[in-house]
Predict the structure.
Amino acid sequence: MTAAPPNTHFWLFSPPDWDRRVCDETPKADPTEPKCREGEYALQLHAAPSAIAPRQALAADVHVYRSEKGAVTELVPRAALAAGRRYEVRLVDAQGREVRLVGTFRVQGPADHKAPSLAEIKSAERYRPPPVQISKSGARILTIDMYDSKPGVVVELAKPSRASFFAVWVGEPGKSIDFSAPPNTYDRANSGSVFELDLGGSDMCGASTFVIPDRDAVRIGIRAVDLAGNRSQGREVDVKLR
């Protein structure tokens, strides 16, 4: 179970239609009920039941960053959560009936107001892996392009401090990013031998949470983010796509 500060946000990375698909696949008490449509389901934050208190729905603001490839949902409690208490996030339908438990976490420690750090963007470039070639006895017999035709961008970062994931903005090359505006999406980094974000492009093994615009070049803005929503200083870089 994840431990979080009292001022935590809840973050859900999912396929773009995950919530509707889960709602549609959940058996209905009345089989004649229509399937779920957009706007008829929502994420709700609950204080989990305990020996002295029942489950209680809590007020929270929900922000969704959705594209054809994926979605990120940020759920922001309107009041600080109680230390030592367990909380649940549930998918409910339009009548408030539970569809599925999405996640649970326990609040521990003091509130977190310290921003993570992001020293620099080391490099950023367009990337599209080559097609996979299947061969037999040294002769090529089939070439398969497993990757979509839309561009992806690989951004290598100096390893940040205290970051859980990253807010990402996409803008016009040569123009400063407005970091006060909502980001285009949030994304998580690959932290192997290098610390990098794979943005936009996708393959059969995974998907990005947004689509890179089809332009000659873009400007990418990035801020490191922690569980409480604290953000680092913004970093920017121009990337040529053609």
About this structure: The chain is about 5% helix and 45% strand. The radius of gyration is 21 Å.
